[in-house]
Amino acid sequence: MKETILGVDVTDKNYKEISESIIYDINAGKQSFIVAVNPEKVLKAQKDEKLRQLLNQATYQIPDGIGIILASKIKKGNIRERVTGIDLLFKISQMAEQHQKSIFLYGAKPEVNELAKQNLLKYYPNLNIVGTMHGYEKDEQLIIDKINESKADILFVGLGSPRQENWIIENMKKLDVSIFQGVGGSYDVLSGKINRAPAIFRKFGLEWLYRLLVEPNRIKRQIKLPIFLIKVLMSKNES
């Protein structure tokens, strides 16, 4: 099931349910596209119809942000669990290891991409990573050929949003891949280039507060959360 928040669809599936659906999609030969949805993207989509359509075109729009959970509660919806992009990457990798599915890592700088691969294998030693490609390659046909030659089941794309989502939409039909996930800056975290918020912050959905404490100049972005919630409240009153 999905809920619509300010015109953007969001799935109410949790990690386990999405992982099970992904296994089904792979075995059925179905192509599926995962995109992370947060308040900032929803606000942008209100002004950018192309972005809104892109987000709604995805198979799974995961609720990546405490603001989405709060919005669902305001609307008396069923979304109760955050599904972050990087944690879903881990869950999918775990599932792929267990079910002998293969993965390709595309995006980021060459050294970041390689470190991300090495560290992902530390978590899941039997994970079948069949290929990698950094995000600075300009030859699109070379990228497509390398991915297809790898025969990967799952493709993680880390080109930044919305570039990665646009790339996936433009190339899905050219690729023999079942599952596409835009993973944003997850490779930077996987490689150790950027540290995640401590577990206590993540547990309570307060990564935004941690990032604000570490990077005070993010205040302009963080102020969008109350703006988003006010818009949700207003839309609820109008309906």
UniProtKB/TrEMBL annotation:
UniProt enzyme class: transferase
Gene Ontology molecular function: N-acetylglucosaminyldiphosphoundecaprenol N-acetyl-beta-D-mannosaminyltransferase activity
This protein's pathway: Cell wall biogenesis; teichoic acid biosynthesis
Keywords: Cell wall biogenesis/degradation, Glycosyltransferase, Teichoic acid biosynthesis, Transferase
Cross-referenced InterPro entries: TagA_TarA, WecG_TagA_CpsF
Enzyme nomenclature, EC number: 2.4.1.187
UniProt feature coiled coil, ranges: none
GO annotation (BP), single: cell wall organization
Annotated TM spans: none
Pfam family, one: Glyco_tran_WecG
CDD domains: Glyco_transf_WecG_TagA
UniProt record similarity statement: Belongs to the glycosyltransferase 26 family. TagA/TarA subfamily.
Name of this protein: N-acetylglucosaminyldiphosphoundecaprenol N-acetyl-beta-D-mannosaminyltransferase
Record organism: Thalassobacillus cyri
